[in-house]
Design brief:
There is one protein chain. With about 500 residues, this protein is α+β, with helices and mostly antiparallel strands. It has two domains: about 150 residues, Nucleoside Triphosphate Pyrophosphohydrolase, CATH 3.90.79.10; about 290 residues, no CATH class. About 55% of the residues lie in helices and about 10% in strands. The chain contains 16 helices and eleven strands. Strands 2, 3, 4, 9 and 10 form a five-stranded antiparallel β-sheet that branches. Strand 2 and strand 3 form a beta hairpin. Helix 7 runs antiparallel to helix 10 and helix 7 runs parallel beside helix 12. The radius of gyration is 25 Å and the shape is globular.
């Protein structure tokens, strides 16, 4: 795909919420593959909609429907197939009977859809478009689980006419995992069996803990913590913290995509929870939280011992939950925490550098980060990068209003009320997206809109106020710099 095509594709995904609801064109614009293995066929689970679909996609310039079906199947499932005869078509899409080019392996243990996982992490678009590829009986797929439920009846008819292919069931995939990682995968399988042997009330308790895990790793929560930090630190340190956090998250995401090491739940049919994490190393959530916990320890200098134990307990709890969720290997989680420690040391060094230029050219710094996100998105069109681009663009716009400050030093008493209001609205939007939106492009646009809406809501509530209204107080930069100077001379 050329650079020009990537740019057009990126802009189309980001800003096509209106056109996504338009009527279908008369000509064929997409192709799909139906791959049958006895009484099962290949399905994928989309990241954006969190719904089940089949390998399909739109035609590129000069591409035939058969080539599109072959390309999309490989990108979403990692399977090399040969499209054979046409099984049917809708107004825009041709459905082909596709035959695998070689032997296909599937996990013998069943997943949440009573299907069998494929080697999803081998697919080029794993973690970009799909988080799961599997074979399942189409008659067991519930309409609410499928992205286009109206297709299910005639999809089953086409499936009955597709050619049968051979499938090999294996107890586990042969990978280069270490002994410790194998132990963790086996532990997750045993944990899953124990989970389903629990009473209904106990299962609800476990689900509540896992929901808490997702809330702890929410981007909205991370942003609100940055806002909260500005209650204890001055504008200059708050701005440094914002720029530093965004940069580190971009670098962690780049490292994550470069290593391409999948999370434990893809190696096993672990389905106690529907995780949103597809790569184990590094865990961006653990990098952020280890960095924040160490930083908070410095903010509360007088109660350091108490806060240190509290931060350690919080970090250990988060670590335990993401491991039990099947999102991160234990060793990868420890490495992620160490990366957060290195990030913390880097931030300490940066605090001692004069940031006058940063303070005077905040919009330029945010614009550089925005362009960097755009360049990364050309190669990895991730929803995370799209969301980050919209957040940065919104912050640039907000900085033009009022005093031009993104963060004030002290906020009013409505902070905690607004904090829970934003989290509640974010949860409500998640429910709405899950049950009422099935169109992929609309889902992308709406998913990205939640973050600027939250920022504008916070700004509207006058949470970013000028520190001059609150009198003279010891700034966070003074607290941190004094602490680091004391540490330096004590070591001398």
């Amino acid at each position: 795909m050329s650079l020009r095509t990537r740019i057009i594709h990126l802009i189309f995904l980001t800003f096509s919420v209106v056109t996504s609801f338009s009527s279908y064109p008369d000509e064929i614009s997409g192709a799909a593959c139906i791959i049958r293995f006895n009484d099962k066929m290949v399905f994928t689970q989309e990241i954006v909609t969190n719904k089940i679909s089949i390998p399909a996609g739109g035609l590129l310039d000069g591409e035939t429907p058969k080539n599109t079906a072959r390309r999309e199947t490989y990108e979403e499932t990692g399977l090399l197939v040969k499209p054979m005869r046409e099984l049917g078509r809708s107004k825009t899409t041709v459905f082909f009977d596709c035959v695998p080019a070689g032997k296909v392996q599937a996990l013998k243990p069943k997943n949440r859809y009573q299907g069998n996982n494929l080697r999803t992490w081998k697919a080029p678009h794993y973690g970009v478009e799909v988080n799961l590829a599997m074979i399942a009986d189409p008659s067991t797929i519930v309409g609410s689980q499928y992205r286009l439920p109206q297709q299910l009846p005639w999809l089953e008819k086409m499936f009955s006419r597709a050619a049968n292919n051979e499938i090999i069931y294996v107890p586990s995939f042969n990978t280069e995992r270490s002994l410790v990682e194998d132990i963790q995968v086996n532990f997750l399988n045993q944990l899953e069996q124990s989970y389903f042997s629990l009473s209904q009330s106990s299962q609800y308790t476990v689900q509540i803990l896992l929901v808490v895990t997702k809330l702890l790793n929410s981007p909205i929560l991370i942003f609100l913590i940055l806002v909260w930090a500005c209650r204890r630190i001055d504008y200059q340190v708050g701005l440094k913290l914002l720029i530093f956090t965004v940069t580190i998250n971009m670098l962690a995401l780049l490292l994550q995509r470069s290593l391409n090491y999948p999370s434990p739940n893809i190696f096993a049919s672990y389905y106690i929870t529907d995780t949103k994490t597809w790569f184990s190393l590094p865990s961006i959530a653990l990098v952020n939280w280890s960095f924040f916990c160490l930083l908070v320890r410095d903010f509360f200098k007088e109660e350091r011992r108490y806060v240190s134990w509290l931060a350690l307990s919080f970090l250990s709890l988060n670590m335990s939950l993401v491991v039990l969720e099947g999102s991160v290997f234990l060793a990868d989680g420890l490495v992620s925490i160490f990366i957060g420690f290195v990030v913390y040391l880097g931030f300490k060094k940066w605090l001692g550098i004069d940031s006058t230029y940063l303070k005077e050219h905040v919009r330029l710094c945010l614009a550089v980060l925005l362009v960097s996100c755009f360049i990364l998105a050309l190669f990895w069109p991730l929803i995370t990068l799209f969301s980050l681009m919209i957040i940065l663009a919104t912050l640039i716009l907000v900085s033009y209003s009022g005093s031009g400050r993104l963060f004030g030093a002290w906020m009013n008493k409505r902070f905690y009320t607004t904090f829970f209001a934003v989290m509640s609205v974010d949860f409500l939007l998640t429910i709405i997206f899950h049950f009422f939106v099935s169109e992929g492009k609309a889902m992308v646009a709406l998913e990205m809109l939640r973050y600027p809406v939250a920022i504008l809501f916070l700004y509207r509530q006058s949470m970013f106020v000028d520190k001059g209204k609150h009198g003279d107080r010891t700034s966070g930069s003074e607290v941190l710099s004094n602490h680091y100077e004391e540490s330096y001379y004590s070591n001398k």
